[in-house]
Amino acid sequence: MASLQLLRFHGLAWKLVQPHVQFFRLLSYFTSVLELSLTECHFQRVELVLRMIDALPHLERLKMTCVTFASPHKAAMPCASSLSKSLSLKNIAIVGCYGNGSSVRPFDPNLYQGILGIYIAYPNIEKIKIDLTYFLSYVQFMQFVSTCHFAQEVHIIGEPNWGHADTVNSVDILPIILATGSTAPAHVRIEESSCACISQLLDLASLYCQFQNVYIELKENPSEEFQLQLFNTLQTSGPPQTYLAWSSLEHANYLFPDVVANMTKKSLFALFAEVPLSQHCIQQALMSILPYTPRSWVNDFHITFSLQTPIGSLESLDTLVEEHASVNVLHAMLWQHPFCIQSVDVHITFGFTETTPALHNDSIVAAMSALVTSFVILLFRPWIRKGILTLRFPDGSEMIPGTYSI
Predict the structure, then answer these.
(1) Backbone phi, then psi, for 135, in 5-degree steps?
(2) What angle do helix axes 325-336 and 279-289 make, rounded to 10 degrees?
């Protein structure tokens, strides 16, 4: 057992019975264990978990899945010995039970106090992963976050059981934050939550104004209202923030891009997926994000278009590249855009969906690249003339400032 690093317990039933008198002493022999996993375990009080943690001197990671506590009183207070032990514990994950793809919340009224007791007991924790199903209300979640100021990274998952109408404004929340005198965690990651839930969490981020890194993974196609909220969050981003990103598991709407904003490197990336191969669709995508790009800190702007390949022949495509009033509107936007005025480096890359069989035919790829080139030069004429735009095409060819003119 000298090399054992992972120790798992499943189905411990310690709500009505006590562990064997020698259990914790024997557990302390597992000095090499770095990770403790508790699944579907039920305890009388949180002190039993704290004693398990303290018995493993080199424990670094604790994962609790579908764990409950029976005691509503002692669970809120960590045992005294835990405050001086297990200084190696850096990473805690507490998640709900999952079945058929959905989170099942154990309706234990003492659970919140138990979780809070664990976090309070170990101030050296750097990473926290928590399931929203464990919180009874948005206010309770806010109270919890305000106690996690010592953690550098908070990973939030799941869908809460509180109603999305349970929205709390800053007037209600601010006293909670001020009472703790705490700062927000530096890194926040949100996954497996609905757009309605993420919207509330973004309100939390805007209230703190201190989250340095925020990553959001969207599990559903966002509404126009939620897209606007994300774009507004992007537009107002900047110091002390260093990173803001979101991505979609489903790219049902080609007008809504995945975004990575790196304030430290002063770069902004936008990926438009499954864009129909037409001048009009590319133009629509551009006009969906350009009004919301930050104006103060971006030095490099990268856009990638992942284009759909045609189902029929290339001749069936709408390949018109003649000027229309809508193109003139785009040109006016490009000329007046801060990136043009400030001479920001702009990189635009065009590619095709990798799973498309047509990509194995060099002649088809060349023909599609020529088609893209024909209407791209029209669309981006202002930035090409300004000399700030680098273009990359599906066949690997490039147009670099200083090497072309129109």
Answers:
(1) -105, 140
(2) 40
Bridge pairing between strands 102-104 and 97-99: antiparallel
The helix/strand/coil state of 107 is coil
- Round to whole Å and give the CA distance between 117 and 105: 19
Q: Tell me 95's DSSP state.
A: E
Q: DSSP assignment, residue 52? A: H
**How many helices (DSSP H) and strands (DSSP E) are in the chain?**
12, 20
Dmax (CA) of the chain: 84
Per-domain boundaries in the chain: 265-406
Torsion-angle region of 343 (φ positive above 0: left; ψ -120 to 50: alpha; else: beta): left
Tell me how far apart the alpha carbons of residues 66 and 181 are, in angstroms, rounded to a whole number.
Answer: 31
Kindly indicate the confidence band of residue 321, based on its pLDDT and cuts at 50, 70 and 90. very low
Give the model's pLDDT for residue 268. Answer: 93
> Could you write out the DSSP letters of every residue in 296-333?
SS-SEEEEEEEEPPPSS-GGGS----S--HHHHHHHHH
* Residue 157 scores a pLDDT above 70: yes
Q: Is it the case that residue 317 has pLDDT exceeding 60?
A: no
Percent of residues, the chain, with pLDDT higher than 70: 76
Both tokens assigned to 255: 């007008």
